[in-house]
Design goal:
Blueprint lengths: L1 H24 L1 H4 L2 H27 L6 H15 L5 H23 L4 H27 L4 E2 L5 H24 L1 H11 L1 H6 L4 H27 L1 E2 L1 H4 L2 H14 L5 H20 L4 H15 L3 H11 L7
Antiparallel strand pairs: 1-2
Length: 313
């Protein structure tokens, strides 16, 4: 009976994963162009949040470097867009962001708590101002045009990156690497004493998460067609994945995805209907959720599932 229940739950989980992917893959066949563009924007947030949660979820290290990796991916597309195929550009954006994460992680992942948060945010701002200085004093102009791609091409690339990120997050959570990361999050000193190479585990996962952020930035640059340091390294890109992950809940893999999906859609609606007040409304909604749903939607779902019907033993 228990084996049958396990198989049933596993089949349900597989269905819950593949059904949305099938719906997303067939979206252009039955939906409007506007819907495809909107879903693309939402999926970018989902990728950033899911990538962020691969590292920060199990370890408890709050990274604000998302804008650095996303922006590096965008500038990779701007620089290489005229000489390389799009697939190579997207992969290159991910690899360059990965290399940046390895360098930054090796130098700073010995920091903890507020010091790590401050450094990762400072990293994004440092890269932003270095690029700004380079463009102003060396290139003689600020900002770059990117060879544009049609919205369907961008959508397919974003969907593939999302699927690859989802598979990677699942494999990491089920692997020895995921177990090591959870032990680091529970007690880093104890994990080190049991033989876990703490620095290597953290740097490796930090780099994996950066790869998908950089790849997403590279393909989105071809949709925006023009970028400058303020656009590519927007601080909002650093903070939104954190807020979305907290909103969805970090207890399960689907938590950050739900949080990013709901808040990404909500942002699109608020920007459209209340362009001058959407940030205020967005902030109020987030405050209410954090106050009344401290564990996010995952906590709410677990609480609902944990309730027993009246008279149950």
């Amino acid at each position: 009976m228990n084996i049958a229940m396990f198989k049933s739950k596993k089949s349900l989980l597989i269905g819950l994963v593949f059904l949305p992917l099938i719906l997303l893959a067939t979206l252009p066949l039955y939906s409007s162009d506007y819907s495809v563009v909107m879903i693309t924007s939402i999926l970018v947030y989902v990728i950033l949040t899911l990538s962020w949660s691969i590292f920060s979820g199990p370890t408890g290290y709050i990274s604000l470097a998302s804008a650095a990796f996303f922006g590096v991916g965008m500038y990779t597309a701007a620089i290489l867009g005229e000489v390389l195929p799009l697939v190579v550009i997207v992969i290159a954006g991910g690899i360059i962001s990965l290399m940046l994460a390895i360098l930054a992680g090796a130098l700073t992942l010995r920091l903890k708590g507020m010091y790590f948060i401050m450094f990762t945010f400072g990293l994004s701002q440092l890269i932003k101002h270095v690029v700004l200085w380079w463009e102003a004093h060396v290139c003689g102009t600020i900002g770059r045009f990117v060879i544009s791609k049609d919205f369907l091409t961008v959508y397919w690339f974003i969907l593939v990156i999302f699927a690859a990120g989802l598979l990677t997050a699942y494999l990491v959570s089920r692997s020895r690497l995921g177990l090591a990361l959870r032990s680091i999050g529970a007690n880093e000193e104890a994990a080190a004493h049991t033989g876990v190479n703490v620095t290597l585990m953290k740097v490796t996962t930090f780099a994996i998460s950066a790869f998908f952020m950089g790849a997403a930035g590279a393909i989105m640059a071809t949709r925006w067609t023009y970028i400058d340091p303020s656009i590519a390294f927007d601080p909002l890109i650093s903070f939104m994945p954190v807020l979305m992950a907290i909103f969805g809940g970090l207890g399960q893999l689907y938590g950050p995805i739900i949080g990013a999906g709901i808040l990404g859609y909500l942002e699109e609606i608020l920007i459209t209907r209340f362009p001058y007040y959407y940030m205020l409304l967005f902030g109020i909604i987030l405050i209410v959720v954090i106050l009344y749903l401290p564990k996010g939607f995952v906590g709410l779902i677990q609480k609902w599932r944990g309730r027993k019907p009246a008279g149950a033993t």
